[in-house]
Write a structure and sequence with these properties.
260 residues, 5-stranded antiparallel beta sheet
Length: 260
């Protein structure tokens, strides 16, 4: 059976995940551990764990296939209350590494191959089969780099689930000038823009999605008329960090004509 309080996230494609874990104490009972892994179900997964094993406290990397767990390479001794764990997926091959507070990473074990049909990244802290005093593990961040983390979205149909809950979000939403219905996502332009020195504010209704790794984004937009009347009236596609750091392509009114 799966331990309680496993945190998982869909993880298609190739990626590297790194996390920092701060513990209230080093693992002290056999199989007590804090882990980072990739999981399909309770019987099929890979994981790197900081754990108590026998007479020592170690970092161990292994896999389970059909319910049988194996770590082909003996774990490496490690003792401390702060550890960084890293897991990399390339095709069906997984490699793992760990580091102390200095963040100088050392490979854990050997690369292992496992075909997980629907892999999810997994975070967890648990006691194994032992009755032990609780171990508190705080995951302060999860850093992800990858090549297929941005998935296609069809806004037609008007499902409210497309906005929020980890998918798309709206920066500075103005409900009066956007709607999501069977025709798709409609945004009505209003005063404001990101361009430096704008006297009308930075604008509303920027629809955002996390986009780590390498990707290509294409959008189909239909306007009720070409940009006109106001300099810099526009519809845009952009990569955005904050209001002062972004890159965009826009169909806009500039220099007395609509242009890209």
């Amino acid at each position: 059976a799966l331990p309680k309080n496993l945190f998982t996230h869909d993880a298609p494609g190739d990626w590297t995940v790194e996390t920092r874990i701060d513990l209230d104490a080093a693992p002290s009972q056999n199989y007590q551990q804090a882990t980072l892994g990739a999981i399909q179900d309770a019987d099929n997964y890979v994981k790197i764990g900081y754990q108590k094993s026998g007479a020592g406290v170690i970092v161990q990397f292994g896999r389970a296939i059909g319910g049988t767990f194996a770590a082909p390479v003996a774990g490496t001794a490690f003792l401390g209350t702060q550890i960084y764990l890293r897991l990399t997926k390339q095709g069906d091959t997984y490699t793992a590494a760990y580091a102390g507070p200095d963040r100088v990473f050392t490979q854990a074990g050997e690369p292992t191959t496992l075909a997980l049909t629907t892999p999810q990244v997994m975070l967890g802290a648990y006691n194994g089969n032992q009755t032990a005093d609780p171990l508190t593990a705080t995951y302060s961040h999860v850093l992800v780099t990858g090549t297929r983390m941005l998935e296609s979205t069809d806004f037609t149909g008007g499902s409210p689930d497309l906005l929020g809950d980890g998918d798309w979000s709206i920066l500075r939403p103005n409900p009066a000038t956007w709607e999501l219905d069977e025709d798709g996502l409609t945004i009505t332009s209003e005063q404001g823009e990101l361009y430096q020195g704008s006297s009308n504010g930075k604008g509303n209704n920027y629809v955002l999605h996390d986009a780590v790794g390498d990707w290509t984004a294409t959008v189909h937009a239909t306007l009720d008329h070409a940009p006109e009347a106001a300099t810099n009236q526009q519809a845009a596609l952009a990569v955005y960090q904050d209001d002062d750091n972004y890159a965009k392509i826009a169909y806009q009114f500039a220099s007395a004509a609509p242009r890209f």
